[in-house]
């Protein structure tokens, strides 16, 4: 039996997770908490470590599919304003791990700082973006990252500097359980030019992705030298359905959840798409979305 003595007011049992994710699917968390500040967060990590409870950070759940049976262990969210601060000093921008990526994009554009504008329209938090090195149109968040403050499973806070960080395609070496904050060094530019560039990217994104639907982002990573969406489309899989899960007509690498969809429907559709692409195109596709 796990002891949460001292944390009774913040640790909840059986919190439904569907409403915390973009797919809006899946079951509850065994334990769930939204700590108010870094001290409380560290204390929770230490207790979980002592009690052998696995801890996972959930950002805005825009790249996660929760299984119908739910998730064991403790799910933490950095929703307190303490974790969402954005501080600007010249070209240096320091941001909390729970801050909204969209907020960082618009704030930096407004202040005449270039780099983040290509990430416009991508949902999620700074922690989620750094963990998976979120990117679009040939750029990614990693290229602007100067340092990150992380917390280990044992509750130790560490400052990781640029030389020690590796960012690849939709992956990074930031794999500690908590990314608490990060510092980016951006480039000075004309705010009006930046706003125009941001608008252009936004129009492109709106035109190419399903909007206003229950979905995560791209389901599969692009295999080297090709696009997962194109491969899926070439296999004639747009519109393919299992239960309430459908391969998007607008972008074949998106799966949309219709009413009454279950997490299992999405997982079965993922398996079907992957095996068809493998059989017909002889390409093994790797998941971009995480299944918890
Ligand atoms: C409509 C739509 C469009 C999208 N377009 C793009 C796109 O163009 N490019 C792109 O790259 N992605 C895209 N995505 C995917 C998604 O937005 C990104 O992966 C995003 O960065 C995930 O952030 P999140 O906060 O929602 O993370 P979550 O989905 O909640 O979590 C993702 C991972 O990050 C970890 N994590 C989250 N917060 C922290 C933290 N503070 N510390 C440590 N680990 C943490 C989680 O544990 C998990 O492993 C899109 C998604 C949607 C729904």
Strand content: 25-35%
Number of helices: 6
As a whole number of angstroms, the C-alpha radius of gyration is 20 Å
Q: Which fold does the CATH topology of the largest domain refer to? A: Uridine Diphospho-n-acetylenolpyruvylglucosamine Reductase, domain 3
Uncertain runs are: none
| Overall form | globular
Q: Would you list the SSEs in sequence order as H and E?
A: EEHEEEEEHEHEEEEEEEEHHEEEHE
Q: How are strands sequenced across the largest beta sheet?
A: 6-7-15-11-12
* Helix content estimate: 25-40%
Descriptive report:
- By secondary structure, the protein is of the alpha+beta class.
- The protein has three domains: 12-76, 2-Layer Sandwich (Uridine Diphospho-n-acetylenolpyruvylglucosamine Reductase, domain 2); 84-207, Uridine Diphospho-n-acetylenolpyruvylglucosamine Reductase, domain 3, CATH 3.30.465.10; 228-291, Alpha-Beta Complex (Uridine Diphospho-n-acetylenolpyruvylglucosamine Reductase, domain 1), CATH 3.90.78.
- Helix content is 25%, strand content 25%.
- The chain has six helices and 20 strands.
- It has helices at 38-50, 101-110, 126-131, 191-208, 228-234, 263-281; strands spanning 12-16, 28-33, 55-57, 64-65, 71-76, 86-89, 92-96, 113-114, 135-136, 139-140, 145-151, 157-161, 167-168, 171-172, 178-185, 187-188, 241-242, 245-247, 255-257, 290-291.
- The strands form seven sheets. It has a five-stranded antiparallel β-sheet with strand order 6-7-15-11-12.
- A hairpin with a 7-residue loop joins strand 18 and strand 19 (255-257).
- It is globular, with a radius of gyration of 20 Å.
- The mean pLDDT is 96.
- Flavin-adenine dinucleotide binds at residues 22, 56-64, 78, 97, 122-125, 127-129, 131-132, 134-136, 178-179, 209, 215-217, 290.
